[in-house]
Amino acid sequence: MDKEARLNGTTSAEHPQALRLWLRMLTCTQLIETQVRTLLREQFDTTLPRFDLMAQLERAPDGLKMNELSRRMMVTGGSVTGITDQLVSEGLVERVAVPDDRRAFRIKLTAKGRKQFIAMAHQHESWIVDAFAGLTDKEITTLHTLLGKVKATAQTPLVETL
User: Fold this and answer.
1) What gap in Å lies between CA 145 and CA 138, rounded to an integer?
2) Which residue, 79, 92, 117, 160, could crosslink 75 as a Cys pair with Cβ 3.0–4.6 Å?
3) Comparison of pLDDT for 159 and 92, the residue scoring more
4) Which has the closest alpha carbon to 53: 28, 83, 23?
5) CA dihedral sign, ordered 122, 127, 131, 133
6) How far is it, in rounded angstroms, from Cα 63 to Cα 98?
7) Which of 52, 122, 42 is nearest to 93 (CA)?
């Protein structure tokens, strides 16, 4: 059941429009993410977390330390290690020793990994564009601007009201 369906049959007097909007945004995000996960699995035999890790590495040609990857992806170090181990075994990323720290490694895309990621990224971009195909360019720009306002507001701590 999507998040928005919880409010079916209720009125705006019962639930604020802001709550309805939040649930609509959450539902849309989840629907698109589910489609992307399915397509990554079907077309590239990979997962969204693997794609996300490779995307971080693509943006950092010199590689990233494991703790940097963990922070950027907002997941535990153990999750990053597990994904990295898989990608190393497939020859898509490599561990490179950090000269001034014998215990640390930088994780980098290999040439094979970069080639595979570029193919996935192009397809991913196409999927996202398709997900918004029902909107005009002007509507997309307006929605982006409005969500920018939401983002700015959300970056300030919420005040607890009693």
Assistant:
1) 11
2) 79
3) 92
4) 83
5) positive
6) 10
7) 52
**Following DSSP, what letter does each residue of 24-80 receive, concatenated?**
HHHHHHHHHHHHHHHHHHHHHS--HHHHHHHHHHHT-TT-EEHHHHHHHHTS-HHHH
Give, in order, the Cα–Cα distances in Å from 5 to each of 2, 57, 71, 132. 6, 38, 34, 21
Q: What pLDDT, in 10s, does the model give residues 115-151? A: 999 999 999 999 999 999 999 999 999 999 999 999 9
Name the residue with higher pLDDT: 13 or 55. Answer: 55
Burial class (CB in 10 A: 0-12, 13-18, 19+), 131: middle
* Cα end-to-end distance, the chain, whole Å: 31
pLDDT in tens, 35-90: 999 999 999 999 999 999 999 999 999 999 999 999 999 998 889 999 999 999 99
Give the Cα separation of 119 and 48 in Å (integer). Answer: 14
Q: Which two tokens stand for residue 160?
A: 């607890």
Residues in contact with 109: Cβ distance below 8 Å, sequence separation at least 6, in sequence order? 54, 57, 58, 92, 93, 117
Q: Look at strands 93-98 and 64-65 and give their pairing.
A: unpaired
